[in-house]
Specification:
Strand order of the largest sheet: 1-11-8-7-5-6
Number of domains: 2
Bound molecules: NADP nicotinamide-adenine-dinucleotide phosphate
CATH superfamily of the largest domain: NAD(P)-binding Rossmann-like Domain
Helix content: 25-40%
Mean pLDDT: 97
Shape: globular
Number of strands: 11
Distance between the termini: 47 Å
Radius of gyration: 19 Å
Order of helices and strands: EHEHEHEHHHEHEHEEEEHEH
Length: 277
């Protein structure tokens, strides 16, 4: 078994970006909007700020009260859309229940949509048109690429069909000539599919949902799950029972979770280049 180490891949991506950013005419600008005081969001925004500072991006954190109205939030987004010094805009999820999150995501200028979650960018990805792509699935593709694992012709089984991970990943895999199967909560006999996988990606959010008896020898396993139990992080894959069967595996922590912020850094630079202002 070989560990696919997200920390190494992240460090390489950030080092390359830093070098490239030093030679730009102006600093790429990233704005992160946070609504309310969600404690996990505080941590995630902090990680984004650290990355931006490390790369030399202009970074602005707009923190808004949890009772802001939809109209007020929309007004702020429209202002940032027309701010020429800003290349990337991200609204930290989850938003309070009274806010229409889908509408907010689709209001962001699609050329500044560094989360890649707007319907326009999701559609372009489906049609294999180069665009800003969601960070976590892009991070999975980059880990595989770093370790020279080609997906072409492979049976890729993805457990989970969220707009954030499973669906965009399925498009990326398909665009790279994998044969893709997507499983979800209504899938019958999950292990029939997981056993077929050359590459198994698990993005469910349930600790240990995949066990050793559900996979075949030599499977490459990508564990996207982040489950916090008694202050400790666990993946969706039961590491102990799969470790002697897999050929490669991403650990939790230290695997896919490392990649999201690095991919955001890549998307900000991509947005900057796309806008060429
Ligand atoms: P999500 O939106 O809750 O989607 C979960 C998916 O799992 C759904 O498609 C659901 O099916 C499916 N599912 C639920 N129970 C299942 C079962 N018993 N068998 C098969 N499929 C099942 O979650 P998400 O946002 O994609 O995130 C998934 C996990 O990845 C979470 O642990 C999250 O914390 C983690 N994550 C990590 C990163 C990172 O590493 N940076 C980023 C994003 C997410 P239905 O569609 O039928 O409901």
């Amino acid at each position: 078994m070989k560990i696919l180490d997200g920390k190494i891949v992240k460090a390489q991506i950030l080092a390359k970006l830093k070098e490239e950013v030093q030679n730009l005419e102006r600093m790429p600008g990233l704005v992160v909007i946070q609504v309310g005081n969600d404690s996990a969001s505080e941590i995630y925004v902090g990680q984004k700020e650290k990355m931006a500072n490390q790369l030399g991006y202009k970074f602005k954190h707009i923190k808004l009260s949890g009772d802001i109205s939809q109209a007020e939030l929309e007004k702020i987004i429209k202002e940032i859309n027309s701010d020429q010094s800003i290349d990337g805009l991200l609204v930290q999820m989850p938003l309070p229940k009274h806010i229409d999150s889908k509408k907010i995501q689709n209001l962001i200028d699609c050329d500044k949509d560094v989360d890649g979650l707007s319907d326009v960018n999701a559609g372009k990805l489906t049609h294999n048109v180069d665009t800003l792509m969601p960070c976590t699935p892009k991070g999975i593709m980059d880990i595989l690429d770093y370790y020279s694992i080609s997906v072409e012709g492979k049976n890729v089984v993805i457990v989970g069909r969220s707009d954030l991970v499973g669906k965009p990943l399925a498009s990326m895999m398909l665009n790279n000539n994998a044969t893709v199967t997507i499983c979800h909560s209504k899938t019958k006999n999950l292990e029939l599919f997981t056993k077929m996988a050359d590459i198994l990606v698990v993005a469910v959010g349930k600790k240990g949902i995949i066990t050793g008896n559900m996979i075949s020898d030599g499977t490459i396993v990508i564990d996207v799950g982040i489950n916090r139990v008694d202050g400790k992080l666990y993946g969706d894959v039961d590491f102990e029972s799969v470790k002697d069967k897999v050929s490669f595996i991403t650990p939790v922590p230290g695997g896919v979770g490392q990649m999201t912020v690095a991919e955001l850094g890549q998307n900000v630079l991509k947005a900057y280049k796309k806008r060429k202002i």
